[in-house]
Amino acid sequence: MILLSVFKSAQRHRSLGKGVGKRYKGADSEAATCFHDLRVPSYVKQVLNIGCGAGRNFRPYNFLYRLWGVDVVPYHRIKWVAPFSHLTYEQLSVEQLTEILHNDDIDLSKTLIISDCVLMDVSEADQFRFYLEARKCGCRNFIFREPSPHNVKPPDRTFKLPLDEFTQRRYPNDPTPVYAYLEY
Fold this sequence. Notes:
The protein is built from three helices and eight strands; from the N terminus they run βαβββαβαβββ. The protein has helices spanning 33-37, 94-103, 124-136; strands at 16-18, 46-50, 66-71, 87-91, 111-116, 142-145, 167-171, 174-181.
């Protein structure tokens, strides 16, 4: 269980916001297909979305799980795509979150970690460090989606974690690779 009280040593890095937020409709307000289609293990109680943005990838999990969103955008600037129940938002980079996982006693054993393209924005070393720290905290469930091949991106902006640990999936009408590791 993630409780904000366990983050005592990292409070200086955080800007916390809790609640429902504002609602708006937009063309990009639907979650990526993979987040709808992949079955979440029954013991999962929380979804951690790295680079949650306006929350579109929380949609399949709303009302079913506690939601924990992490992004670099200040809370007051986010226009949430829906009113989310049980949402905790923290303004953090991947590197800051990794440091918190390293320094604090956080139990991620009942957490699904998802990221839609954001993890690929950090270096190979930072991707691997984040993944190792999440695993050390007990996380055994990950869904990572790469940027579309149609997006202009630097050549090194790709998934760098050990591919043999993940199942790679592709969906019709979506050329974006999805990497999943789920323990049922």
